[in-house]
Amino acid sequence: MTDLIALHRRAAEATAELVATVEPADLDRPTPCAGWTVRDLLAHQIVQNHGFAEAAAGLRTSLERWTPVPPGDDPVAEHTASVEAVITAFAAEGVLERDFWLPEVREGGPFPGRMAVGFHFIDCVVHDWDFARALGVPVNIADDLAEAALPLTLQVPDTPESRGAGKAFARGLAVSGDAPALTRILAALGRDPS
């Protein structure tokens, strides 16, 4: 695979560019994430970005540390800072060979660095689509990023035990095998691409 760190950086930066267009009036718009507004999705991404940055540094944090809190007066700035934190953490020497502790995933780990960075890469790609849908603007994830994220996405377990109500993803949806990579990613993770 092409350099996973570089792919992740591009996806994270693309999402940050999209989030930079968010205005205060957009914060209460619904997103494709069931029950979440743009504000909720920002809170989720901010805590995830910081959590993955801490895990990349070898920290073993509690599940409570990964609980989203409502963003403050400047959620766009908070999101930008969190993206910078995770990009910097992932750029550290040997990060793909480290173990990551992710308390909200299965038993918490450890997960190989390459797998953990892949998790976050998929998150950036999918949430870019979520923000774009909520804002009514085009997705700004390049086709090559979606193509690189697709095989990682298809490795995410899709069982009744791992998907559904209260889980990170819904059960996968059927989609044509020759559909664009982003469409296949969304369907695989239970989002309706239409």
Describe the structure.
The chain is mostly helical. It has one domain: Four Helix Bundle (Hemerythrin (Met), subunit A) (Up-down Bundle), CATH 1.20.120.450. The chain is 48% helix and 2% strand. The protein has six helices and two strands; from the N terminus they run αααββααα. The chain has helices at 4-19, 38-56, 75-90, 113-135, 143-153, 181-188; strands at 99-100, 111-112. Strands 1-2 form a two-stranded antiparallel sheet. Helix 2 (38-56) runs parallel beside helix 3 (75-90). It is globular, with a radius of gyration of 16 Å. The two termini are 29 Å apart. The model has no long low-confidence stretch (mean pLDDT 91).
Keywords:
194 residues; mainly alpha; two-stranded antiparallel sheet; Four Helix Bundle (Hemerythrin (Met), subunit A)
Estimate the mean pLDDT confidence. 91
> Main sheet?
2 strands, antiparallel
Count of structural domains = 1
Report the portion of residues in β strands.
Answer: under 5%
Strand pairing plus helix content: what structural class? mainly alpha
In which order are the strands of the major sheet placed? 1-2
Name the CATH superfamily classification.
Answer: dinb family like domain
CATH architecture classification name: Up-down Bundle
